[in-house]
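User: I'm putting together notes for a lab meeting next week and I want to include a structural view of one of the chains we've been expressing. I don't have a solved structure, so I'd like a prediction I can at least talk through. The sequence is below, exactly as it appears in our construct file.
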Amino acid sequence: MFFARVPMTMTGVTLTLYVVSGLGRGYGAAGVVGAAVTLGMALGAPLIGRTIDRYGLRPVVAVCGLSSTAFWFAAPHLSYEALVVCALPAGVLSVPAGSLARQILAALVPADQRRAAYSLDTILVEASFMIGPAAGIAAISGLSATLTLSGIGTIFGVTALLIFLLNPPIRNEDELAPTGTARPPLRSWLTGRLLATLLIAAGTLFCLVGTEVATLAALRSHGDVGWTGLVIAVMCAASMIGGIVHGAVRKSLPQGLLMLLLALLVIPVGLVTQPWWLLMLVLIPTNLVCAPTLAATTEAVSELAPPAVRGEAMGLQDASTRLGLAAGSPVVGFAIDHSSPAWGFAAAGFGGLALAALGLVWSLRRRPVRTPSLAAAVRARR
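Assistant: Thanks for the context. Below is the predicted structure for the 382-residue chain, given as C-alpha cells.
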C-alpha cells in the first residue's frame, strides 16, 4: 500500500508542470485539472468504498487499476479541454489506496493494537509525500512528459495488479457476515458522532494544506524559496516522530483535542516568518501533532462504523479530507493575497477550528436525549 500511494503523491505536481510547460497554459488552468481530479476522488471515494463492501476487493481494484493506467497513458496525448473532461471520471475511478490500507489494517490487526498500526500507516503516508513529489518533479524535468505520465500509469497498474494478486482481507473471521445479511441502514451508523469525526478530519486537512501554502508564501516573500524542500522535509520528519510516539504510548489524546492542538499551535507561527530556519523551527510543534491527529481520525472511524460498511465509512473519511484539502488552499491563498503570509497561518488555524467546531455542534445537536420510559421506571421500582 505504501508503493500504491507513491504515484498518488506524484500526480499533483506532474499534472501542474505538464499543463504549464507541456500545454502552455497558466497555473490557474492547471489548478482546474487538479481540482477536477480531487473532486472526482471526493465524490467517488464513498461509492467505491460501498462497492468494496458489497462485491469485495478484487473487482474494484481491477476496474480502478485499469482506469487509472488508461488515463495516465492517454493524458500526454490529450488536448487541455479533453484532459479537463477526463480528469473528473479518472478521479472517481482512481485506486483507493488510502481507504484500502485502513480497511486491511482493521481486518488484520486486533482492535487494541490498531492505534500503533494506524500510526505506522500515517508515518508511511508522510514518507510517500517526502518521496513522491520530488520524484515527480525530477522525472518531468529530466524526461519527456509522455514518458513521465506513462510511467505514473505503469506504477498505478503494477501496484493494482499486486494488490489484486495478494487479495488481502478486508474483514476478519469474526466480521464476515453470512450470505443474505441485510446491510445496516445509513442512519443507523452515520451518526452525529461519526459526522463530527469527519468534519474534524476535514478541518485537519484544511489546516495542514493551509500551513503548507502559508509556509511557501512566507519563504517566497523573503527570497528563501530555495530552502522550501528542507523546510517541508523537516515538517514531515516532525510529523513522523509524532506518529511514532502516538503509536507507542498505551493511551493517547482523542482526535478532537489533537486537532485543537494542531490548529492552536499553527496560529502564532506567523509572528516569526524570518529567517527561514527560525520559521522551520516554529513549525515543528504543530507538525508533531499532524500524524497523531490523522491516525486518531482513522481509529475513531473504524470504531464507529460497523464492519459491513467499513469501506463506505473509510471512503467518507477520504472524501472529507479531500474536501478539506480543496477548501484550504484557496481560502488561505485569499487571506495571503489580501494581507500577508503571516495571516495565512492564522487563516489555516482558525479555518480548521471552524470546521472542527461545526462538527462538535452537529454532534451535540444530533445526540438523542435519553429519558426513561414509564415501563422502565416501573421495572426499576420493582
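A couple of points you could mention at the meeting. DSSP finds 17 helices and no strands in the chain. The chain has a mean pLDDT of 85.

User: Perfect, that's what I needed.
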